[in-house]
Every structure is written in structure tokens, then in C-alpha cells.
Amino acid sequence: MKQHNAEVIRRLLKLIKPYRHFLYLSLLLAIISVSTTLYAPVLVGEGVDLILSKGNVDFEGIVAILMRLGVVIAVTSISQWLMGFCTNQITYRTVKDIRAMAFEKLSIVPLKYIDSHQHGELLSRVITDVEQISDGLLMGFTQLFTGIVTILGTIGFMLSINFNITVIVVLITPLSLFVASYIAKHTYDMFKLQSETRGQLTSLVEEMVSNQKVVKAFGYEQEAQAKFEEINARLQQCGLKATFFSSITNPATRFVNGIVYTAVGVTGALSAVAGRISVGQLSAFLSYANQYTKPFNEISGVVTELQSAFASAKRVFDVIDEEPQTPDLPDAVELTEVDGSVALKDVYFSYRPDVKLIEDLNLSVKPGQRIAIVGPTGSGKTTIINLLMRFYDVDSGEIIVSGHPIKEVKRDSLRSMYGMVLQDTWLKTGTIAENIAYGKPDATREEIIRAAKAAHAHSFIKRLPQGYDTVVSEEGENISQGEKQLLSIARVMLIMPPMLILDEATSSIDTITEINIQKAFAKMMEGRTSFIVAHRLSTIKESDCILVMNQGRIIEHGTHEELLQKNGFYANLYNSQFAV
Question: Under CATH, which number does the domain 342-576 receive?
Fold first, then answer.
């Protein structure tokens, strides 16, 4: 734990470094605030000593002291407010940077990292855990600084009054630190478990909410509720344990502080009776003893909060430290145009080393050809698309586009050469026009409408309340699945890329609209190399070449008529779709 905490502290301090001017100013204001706060008991003590006896009070001296006390209180208030402003600046700017780093890393990690982690758990790290870091830092800066300065300042003021009593206070108080340190060591693991369990709960809730229709359709509500209650119960248990043990810190340190205050009171009273200190000095000393022990309570609370913050920071830093995808080569080629030729040579690939998928795959595609890819589920059809777009890199072999091995091409330029329509549609929160122009933000309204008409989406868009300015959410609740797919098709038709990838692009569209879309696709595919993944084999009859895949291999290839004449795997697939 010590090693983890030390590393987390080092990294947090490195992130705070750009805002060190706020840190230095905060320290200065803490010194000013504590100094004036500690000077107040001196003035009070002087005032007590001016009340000599009944009818013998130095009112002029007391008025002068009250005026000085007013100035001291005003300075204390202003410095504390300014210190709060500085600590907030440090905390929220640092947290903003941490969240930005985590989000940026998620955009450059390999796709397999996103695929292998629960999305809700990643959300929890970027949002909930970062908020926990914020709370820890804010408490750390506001209370740790003032606490340490108060302890040092109080010792100095007490030494100026009486050395012996100060020694008693200093010798007894470290018990508070020992108690706080002991408890902190045993709460880190509990807070770490709490953060992990909270991440699991967030993931489950995100999964259930985003797929509520499927949950209800399959009557999974009770199972989901049971799973939620199980995780929620675990979160309750580890949360209670973490909170219980951490909550022991404050009363334990307060008990030690009570002993310190009692010792100061007894020793100080004896000293006052013996005439070694005045009654006013005794009152000031008691005030200092109380102020001296108070920071130990606050610091113990800070230590507890920091344990939770460190556990959360470790989870966030794990994301930030994740290896990014293999960067583009220094001399990578920027593709500005392609002739449409694609070749796969001796390609091997699997998502997991122990589960083989694509082995010794060879394919040569001429410019402008329409290549259909068919086969049973899990045969590797979508995997080929992932490899062509370089969402995943091949384990061995190479893929060549227009004479360039794609590992020697910049990813962004490679992907800009493809237009991609997937079975799983996605919309961003924004207007219809903004969603169509996702790949070309500077498109004019005329270009957007032209693309929508080509995709046969214009008619339904015009029926929406605000037409192209209608706002849709990420889930697209106010439009149907088929309409979402039409918008995804319009998005590609707007940019008109030199190569196309259509992965079940018309799976959610009615038959009549599909016929129109197929005509639009046919027009768009003229002169463009196109890869078409389809389960409905009637949609790929016109393809120049049909690749039949099974278990990661191309087992048949040819035109629709040629494959039917072979009476092989493809013929069985095709005939089975029309069997009565």
C-alpha cells in the first residue's frame, strides 16, 4: 500500500505542478490565516488581564484590544476565503486534466481494450473515481495546509508563554498521529474494494438502462434485480466496513486530545497558582491547546478521505497507463487517393491466442469490384472488416491497399478512404443534419439534403417536428431503428468515399425501402471497391465476387451463378433461405 500511495502522490504532485503558483499563494494565505487566528488568543488573554477585579477594569485598554481583534478577524476571514479560492483552482484544474487524460487515452487504446472491459466500469473510472479524487484533493489542500501550519504556529506561541507546559502537549499529541496512521493502513484496501464494487454496480445499471427493451422482452427484470441487489449488498458491506473503520479515527484522536487539554488545564492552573503565568496567559494557553489538537482531528479525517482518493486515483491511472494502440510509423504514408485495389496475403488473426480464427487468408480485390462476404455466424466476416479498417492489426501476413501495406499508412488517412455502414447504428446527441454531416462537418444544407434523398431518408425527416433541425439523442428514441439506419447510410453518401464497407447495412429496413436503397447503393458503388457482408443472400446476387467463409477460411469464391453450379456450401446456404 505504501508503494502504491507514494506513486499516486508523486503523480498527483506532477499534475499539480502547472498550478504551483496557486499552491504557493495558498500556503502563504494559510500562514497568514493561522497567524492571525493564533494571535487572537493573545489579545483575549491581554483583555482578561485588564479585568483586575470588580470595579477595577481598564475599559480604554479593552476597547483598544477589541479594535485590534476586529482587524485580526477581518484579515483571517479574507485570507481564508482567498485560500479556498486557490485550493479550488488547484483541485478542479487538476481533476479536469486527469479526466481529459483518461478520456484521451480511451480514444487511442486498442479496440480490444474497450471490447474486453465493461463499458459501465470504464464510465465509473472516468466519472465517479475522478470525483472521489477531487473530494480527496480538496479536503487535503484546505485542511492539510492549515492543519500543519496551525500545529507549528501553535507550538511557537505556546513556547513564548511557557516551555514546560508546551513540552507536555508536544509529547502527548503524537498519539493522535499514531492512531490515525494505524487506522489508515487498514482502510486503504477497503476503499479500493469499495471503488471496484461501485464500478461493477455502475456497469450493471448502464447495461440494464441502455438495453431496457431487451431486458423487458425476455422477462429478465427479476434476474437483473437479483444481480443488482447482490452487488448492491456487497457495496453496502464494503462501504460500511470502510466507513466504520475510518470513522474510528476521529473519536480516537479526540480522546487523545481530551487528555492533552486536561493535562494543560491541570498543569497551567498549578502554574498560575504558583505565579509563573497570569490568568490571561492560562486562558490563552488553554485556547492554544484546543487549537493545537484540532488539526490532528482534521488531518486524521484528511488521511481517511485521501485513502479513498488514492484508491480511486489508482484505478484512473490504470486507464491512463494503458498501452495505446501501436502508433503510426514515423514515415507512414498519408493516403490522399486510392485506386481501390486491396490484397490480403497470408493473413493470420485471432482475438485470443488460444482460440484460432483466421488462418492463411489470401484475397486479391481489383479496383471497383464488389466483394460480398457470406458465411455462418462466427466464420470471420466482420473480423475481415475490422482488419481492413485496421481496428485490429493482423498477427502475421499483411494487408495492402493501393500498393501500400496498411501498417505503413496513417490510420486516419486509411479509414478516410472507406465509407462504413454497420448493422449496429449509432447516432450522437444532436440534430438530424449534424448526424448526417458527422464525417463532413462543413457540409452545406444542400449537400446534406441531397445525401438524405439518395438514402431515401428525406421523406421521413421532413415529417419530423423540426425537420433536419430535429434533435435526436444517442439512443435515437424518437425515430425507429430503420430510420436510424437510413441516417447512417446518408452519412456515408454525403462523403462519397472511394471504397465502401456495408456490414448488414439494410438489416433494419423494410423490403420496399431496401429495394430503393439497393438501387442507391448500386449507383454509389459504381467505380468503387465495395465489401458487402450480408446474411440475406438475395441482396448480393450482382456482386462481382462472393467469398464464402467458414471457420476463418475462404472455402468458396465466385459469382452467384458459378457458386450455385458448384452445388456446395454456398448453394446450401442460398437454398436454405428459400426452403419451405
Answer: 3.40.50.300
